[in-house]
Amino acid sequence: MTTSAPSAPPSASSPAPPFGRALCAMVTPFTEAGALDLDGAGRLADRLVRAGCEGLVLSGTTGESPTTTDAEKSALVRAVREAVGDRAAIVAGVGTADTRHTVELALAAEKAGADGLLVVTPYYSRPPQDAVEAHFREIADATGLPLTLYDIPGRTGTRIEPDTLIRLAEHPRIVAVKDCAYDLLGTQKVLARTELAYYAGCDEQVLALRAVGGTGCISTVANAAPGPFRAILDAFEAGDTAEAARRQQRVIPLIELMMSSGLPGTVTAKALLGRLGLPAGPVRAPLRPAGREVTDGLLAAYEELVAA
């Protein structure tokens, strides 16, 4: 009787992770009076890194970038860099609807100590694809930092089309995509034709995207539960796809409550962090805090997850 050789680990290759694999889209902590809480930001960043986050994305959607000032964005990068040192990559959100302003923020983030930039598609004006491409190229040409393009048409109103991404991948400083497009076919088209590192920006797609050649995740839910998301990726890398699937399924109840409850992830993340006694503080208007019932549900789902 012959026995077959043990099965090999998953062969879904992915580009080298420019900022690590498990990243958190970190909230921006505020004081109860609404000011930037730099001490709290440092403490939260340190906790996230100690719990397995290899990178932190600051001043993104979850970081309330539309309601923080340019000076606050730079101060946040400096405070988090001081807190984590070289233990994690720092990716600074600098995207705006204005190309000139985005370049200014990119240069400021580079000066403040960021390792990379997150640049969202220009919103509201809904530029055509040639203008979208020119926008990203101008920012990439203006800075020495690598760029992650943020494709989230549900918020911006404009997609970065796959063919546009394929052309942009030729730029040496455009290295990654935060994928919130909900277009797995388009994503696979880009993955097949470029070396762009794809990060799942939708927490329910972490394993699915990694399995087709994605790099990792930029997770909102990781603000409260960083370990479970790192564990999904670790299980996959170890070749245990069944365990990776189990771990992805375990986080679905918390993902659903945080990301599909009708409230922005910033609101639910800060509500849960507050109940856990972690730095977060209030959201800035026009966002409003989550109610008691929502927060109680988030806490129950979190406790069930960490007890599993």
Count of helical regions: 12
In terms of quaternary structure, the protein is single chain
CATH classification, class level: Alpha Beta
Q: If you consult CATH, what is the topology?
A: TIM Barrel
Q: What proportion strand? A: 5-15%
Mean pLDDT: 95
Work out the radius of gyration: 19 Å
In the CATH hierarchy, the architecture is Alpha-Beta Barrel
CATH level-four homologous superfamily name? Aldolase class I
Structural class: alpha/beta
Number of domains: 1
Which range best describes the helical content: under 10%, 10-25%, 25-40%, 40-55%, 55-70% or over 70%? 40-55%
- Spatial shape: globular
Residue runs with pLDDT of under 50 for 5 or more positions: 1-9
Strands, count: 8
Largest sheet: 8 strands, parallel, barrel
Helix and strand element order:
EHEHEHEHEHHEHEHEHHHH
How far is the N terminus from the C terminus?
A: 41 Å
The strand line-up of the biggest sheet is: 1-2-3-4-5-6-7-8
